Amino acid sequence: VRKVAERIEMGTSIIRTTLQELTSALEQYRINELQKESEEGQLQVKVLNTKERQTATKFLKSKDLLKKTNELIGQSGVIGEETNRLLMYLIFTSRKTANPLHCISLGSSGVGKTHLQSKVAELIPEEDKIEITVLSANAFYYFNRTELRNKLILIEDLDGAESVLYPLRELQSKKRITKTVVHKDRKGTTKTIHLTVEGPVSVAGCTTQESVYEDNSNRSFLLYIDESEEQDKKIMHYQRAESAGQRNKQQEFESARFLRDVQRVLQPVAVRNPYAMRLSLPQSVFKPRRTNTHYLQFIEAVTFYNQLQREKKYDQQTGEEYIETTIEDIQAANELIKEVLLRKSDEITGACRNYLEELKKYLQANNQTTFTALETRRRLKVKKTTQWRYHQQLIESYYIKKLRKKKGETIIRYEITNPNEYKELEKTISAALQECIHKITASGGSPRSTVPVCSTTEMEQTTT
Hints:
There is one protein chain. By secondary structure, the protein is an alpha/beta fold. 49% of the residues lie in helices and 13% in strands. The chain contains 17 helices and 13 strands. A five-stranded parallel β-sheet has the order 2-3-6-1-7, sandwiched between helices. Strands 8-10-9 form a three-stranded mixed β-sheet, with helices on one face. The radius of gyration is 29 Å and the shape is globular. Residues 449-464 have low confidence and may be disordered.
């Protein structure tokens, strides 16, 4: 200050004041730049205005909510997959609950597993999801403690996340993961610190290898992609219409944006199912303990989505606010989950089941009861090694059998042991679910009725 004052021949007080103002302005400029960088790195959370909130609330209170939601999902650009897309949407919605659900999309390469997941994920607000392509072994442990809480984690391909499958499973089951590491402070002292990341989270992934990720599959809903010829036609028609500029992109954008607004209106609330003691699964379901949990949690997810149509109640002892499941919620859940339970009851993998069902259709269309591997491989367009694996599974489970060679024959012929086994299994599951609904309605819909619990044995006898 003194040197500047001498050089320009001004008073030191004026110079000091000027430098102080300049310093303050520079400091403020630095703070503004740092704040701008921080804001650019963060997602901007949309705040709904009054009109948007009222429109979304009105929609959530409307009749046939699940049907209207499914129609909007279709308008947003998801072609076909009517059951899978609504199932996935409700599973993604469950991230806001205390017990989120998880799903794995399964199917052959190139059938649209990732596309379906990404299109439905577009209906979830950006601030509520984390999309991952590849993860390092310790990636999950270095999130902030609550950064993953009530988030949707989307994994494009489980093959790229093999190193984190174990912590991911723990996060799904225990809702938190902890890792202990050694750390040196500034003084060089070694300390042990615990890295804890809390859930709960909802996890979704895609894979072609069902058997490889069995532990993860047990914790998830398995959604098998529709690989039918009819679905191929729908998708190709959409692709042509899009190429010709005949798709209403504005409608797709607005439908997706509206469903994101609907998600923002939903608020965390406890769900209680007064009919849970009367619900049971058929004995044919594999791993019934975990599947039963999934079934009950899915009913809760349906109730949660209908929260604005349910009366809020309060626990007399704890004061906790909650809503109750209705019979309509259970019926809607049963219709959607029927295919999932059917797959859970199947002894063979989903890809092998698809092959067997296509094989049945081919034989029925040609009035055949026997077939050769070469014949069906060419007709169904299956690779030789893939078909061999399928036949090994089917023979071991006695779905098909080899026929004895006739004199002079060199080619092995096969026969399907029971062409109607899948339809019979489907009827068993449908009847079991319907029987529970029947017993609830027979009691007048009262959860406190003295009607006995719907047992698995009774259901099996009824379906028989």
